[in-house]
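Title: Prediction job returns without error message
Component: structure pipeline
Severity: low
Priority: P3
Assignee: unassigned

Description:
Job completed but the reporter wants confirmation the result is attached to the right record. Sequence as submitted:
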Amino acid sequence: MAETSEILGDLDRALAKLRAAQGTSAWRDAVVESCAHFSRGIACLLETLSAPAPDLSEKGLRAQRYARVKVAEMRLYAADQVKAGKHARDLYSALRPQIDEARAAFSGQFLTPPNGVPDYLHEELVRALAQNDEALLGPNYPGPLA
């Protein structure tokens, strides 16, 4: 997901394009293009605003740190597999043993019994490994644990 500042910048550029095209033959095209930018931008902003607040408890912070370390280890120690998985748009298949092992450990340490800790491992896999493109994890990726 794009940062709020990127979204606002995109909306600002779309508005500037509309203003520049006002009263010209390019007005209709500018309206159509800007509508698409506004729709995506507003949807992203709403998603950002409705995202759950991070768990700042000691257990939540430990869960975040664990997730970051596990994903960083994958990027460091399995760099060739990460590269191949990104190229094939299927990181999960390329890193299945590492991801499954990390998911099992994360679930056991932080999600059992259910205690309100978000699935930081899934978030970190998407953010750092798949560069915010969940589709890069591939069709066999089982999704969030919680």
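Comment from assignee: result matches the submitted record. The helical segments are 4-21, 27-50, 58-77, 79-87, 91-94, 96-111, 120-129.
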